[in-house]
Amino acid sequence: METSLSGDELARILATLANPHRMRVIAALASGRNYVSALARELGISRPLLQLHLARLEAAGLVTAAFELSADGKAMKYYDTVPFAVTLTPQSIALAARSLTIEDGEKTP
Question: What is the DSSP letter of 45?
Fold first, then answer.
């Protein structure tokens, strides 16, 4: 993921990572991909709650998902991180802020 993000992309990523559970998910996946049930056990949270957080991370472009069949024929959904780097400096924030959109979809002045 590029470091020169639009204002909206930067805001979406920062808002997504502002949640401690989602930060823990990224941390757990940093060592390699994992499937939902194992990840839920590792993090000590329910699968439905984990799936909500994974959906937010996927929508922000921070993780990807793929279904695979296990040896016994069960469909398992694996998640992995997408390589990304976000550099925050006053200058990078000022640049991104120029492209923020307001609620009606227009660019901010």
Answer: -
